[in-house]
Each structure stands twice: as C-alpha cells, then as structure tokens.
Structure to design on (285 residues):
C-alpha cells in the first residue's frame, strides 16, 4: 500500500478545498481585519419537477459594525454547455449584514419552466464591492448547481450504519465504518452527515448526499486532507460526485437501505487513478 500522510498546512480563517471553514469571530471591525465569505463554496438548488425550489444562502463576516453592510452580487456563467439558463433562477442583487450582526442571509429561487433536468447546470455568485483596505477573503465567489428533483416519500434521516463496499487501498476504507446521523441540509433534498475519511490518517469531514429523481449522488467534492509522500503540494485524496450514468438508484418509498456511488481519488493521487466506490447505508433508527 502506498505510504499515506496527513497534510499539514497553515489554517487560514476561510481556507478550504470545497467548503468554507467555520468563521473565527474577532469582534469590532475597528480593531481587527474583517474576513468575509459565503458559508459554502458550492450550493445546490434542487427544483421540483414541473414546479419550483429554493436554497438559503449565508454570507459571513468575522467582525461586527454599527451600520448595515450591503454587498453587491454579480452573476456569472461558465463558458460551456453546463451554464444554467437565467430563466430558471432568481438571485437578489445584494446581501445585507445588519448592524451588530456577523451574517447576512438571502434566498435563491428556482423554477422548472421545462428547462431543468437531471444534469447539473451551473452559475456563480461573486461579491464585487468588498473594501480591499480592511476586508479579506480567500474567495468571494460561490457556485450554484441547479438540477431536477422529485418529492421524497420517505425521511432518509436518522441514524444509519455506513460502510464502504470495497476499499480503494488494501485494509483502509475511504470512510470509517460505523454509525452516522443523517440530517436535512440546506434544502429538503440534501442529507448531511460527518464521517472520518481514511481512518487513522484523516479527520472528520462533512458529506452531502443530493437526492434527485430516482437517483442520488454526492452533493459536492470531499477533500480528505490525506495524501501520499510523492503527491503534489496542497493535493489530497478527494471524493467527487459520480458521473450521471454511474449514480446509485434509490427507492423513495423505503429509506431502510440505500447506496451511494462516488468517485474515489478523483484527483489521481498516490500514483493511481479514479475509481467508483460504493458506500452502503443501513438504517438503525
């Protein structure tokens, strides 16, 4: 087996590969620099088939002020076929962090309009008027993925026993086997839980399950913070959503057992290539 080690790095307040870390609040803006960021680097906007959907977004600051702070939001699109159709979503033009508060909130609304299907379509949100003299951020942009969903007929929440069906590395599962608690995420079609990646090497990571019509997938990439000695700097073994044709099916009427297929080692670390890995979930209570 390849020699693994846990990556060591300076932890910036907002540093993250896929998702923003919790903010370290440091009080008055006149005494401390202000770090700002979206609460997540990727948001999922599930739209119910022939209907609508929404996702709540949080914008964070590490200090408070005695006046409202208003930030402008600019929408962007990738220059390829994955770009979302502007007719399928609405985003406010600004987000406000009220005086005395560390956070601002807004809602992105989505509508099917016969333009949304199971394929992720993407747009970005960028804060454009941060004050560079005292406001800092690793990234002022977040990505939003739009996709079609069908109403869930079972809860898919509670305690599950989770285990990897087949290890990528001999005697080392991608996630530690054991009980995990699935809870609703930012939308009714997300389930989130904490799991230890590569036990003995990695730490606890948040994992998002995204339910669509008849199929489910990993909601966003999970960087393990674990790498091999000859890997590039700042690179780690990463789990990514499965390709559309490789997703796991599920029974919306039965949440007692389901599987999720993910791409393990999507970054081709440790001298190996990507592999589809199946994670099994059996409901405990």
């Amino acid at each position: 087996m390849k020699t693994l080690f846990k990556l060591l790095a300076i932890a910036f307040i907002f540093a993250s590969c896929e998702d923003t870390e919790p903010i370290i609040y440091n009080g008055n803006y006149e005494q401390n620099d202000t770090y700002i960021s979206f609460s997540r680097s990727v948001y999922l906007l599930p739209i119910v088939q022939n209907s609508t959907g929404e996702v709540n977004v949080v914008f964070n600051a590490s200090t408070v002020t005695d006046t409202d702070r208003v930030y402008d939001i600019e929408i962007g699109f990738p220059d390829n076929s994955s770009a979302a159709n502007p007719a399928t979503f609405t985003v406010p033009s600004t987000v406000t962090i009220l005086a005395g508060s560390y956070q601002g909130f807004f809602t992105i609304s989505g509508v099917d309009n016969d333009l949304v299907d199971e394929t992720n379509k993407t747009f970005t949100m960028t804060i454009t008027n941060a004050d560079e003299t005292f406001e800092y951020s690793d990234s002022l942009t977040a990505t939003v993925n739009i996709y079609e969903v069908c109403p869930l007929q079972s809860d898919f929440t509670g305690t599950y026993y989770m285990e990897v069906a087949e290890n990528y590395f001999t005697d080392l599962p991608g996630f530690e086997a054991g009980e995990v608690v699935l809870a609703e995420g930012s939308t009714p079609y997300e389930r989130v839980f904490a799991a230890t990646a590569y036990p003995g090497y990695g730490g606890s990571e948040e994992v998002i399950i995204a339910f669509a019509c008849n199929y489910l997938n990993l909601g966003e990439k999970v960087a393990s913070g674990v790498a091999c000695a000859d890997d590039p700097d700042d690179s780690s073994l990463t789990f990514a959503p499965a390709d559309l044709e490789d997703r796991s099916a599920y029974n919306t009427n039965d949440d007692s057992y389901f599987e999720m297929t993910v791409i393990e080692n999507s970054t081709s670390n440790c001298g190996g290539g990507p592999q589809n890995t199946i994670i099994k979930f059996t409901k405990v209570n």
The mean pLDDT is 91. The CA atoms of residues 99 and 192 lie 31 Å apart. The longest strand covers residues 52-61. The chain has two domains: 34-149, 152-283.
